[in-house]
Amino acid sequence: MNGSLHLWLIPLLPFAGFLINGLLGRRLPKALVTAVALLAPLAAFGVVLFAAAQAFTPTEVRSWNGPGPVPGALSLPYVETCPLGWINIGTLHVDFSFVLDQLSLVMLLVVTGVGFLIHIYSVGYMAHDEGYARYFSYLNLFLFFMTTLVLAGNALLMFVGWEGVGLASYLLIGFWFQKTTAADAGKKAFIVNRIGDVGFLIAMFFLLANFGTLTFSEIATKLGQYPGWTGGVVTVIALCLLLGATGKSAQLPLYIWLPDAMEGPTPVSALIHAATMVTAGVYMIARNHVLFDHSPFALGVVAIVGAVTALFAATIGLVQNDIKRALAYSTISQLGYMFLGCGVAAYSAAIFHLMTHAFFKALLFLAAGSVIHGLSGEQDLRKMGGLRKKLPVTFWTMTVGVFAIAGAPGLSGFFSKDAILYSAFQQGSFGKVLWFLGLVTAALTAFYMFRLWYLAFLGNSRSPEAHPHESPWSMLGPLVLLAILSIAGGWVSFGGRFYEFLAPVVGARSEAASGDSLEYILMGVAVAVALIGWFIAHSFYKQRSDRPAELAAALPAGYKLLANKYYVDEILSASVVKPLLATSTYFLSWVVDKAVIGGLAWLLGGIAVFSGALLQRWQSGNIRSYAAWLAGGAAALLLFVVVPWPLVLAHIGIHLNWAGR
Amino acid sequence: MSSFFAQDVPLVWYLLLSAVLFSLGILGFLLKRNLITVFMSIELMLNAVNLSFVTFAHQWHAVKGQIFVFFVMMVAAAEAAVGLAIIIAVFRARATLAVDRIDLMKL
Question: How many Cβ atoms are within 10 Å of B84's Cβ, its own excluded?
Answer without folding.
Answer: 13
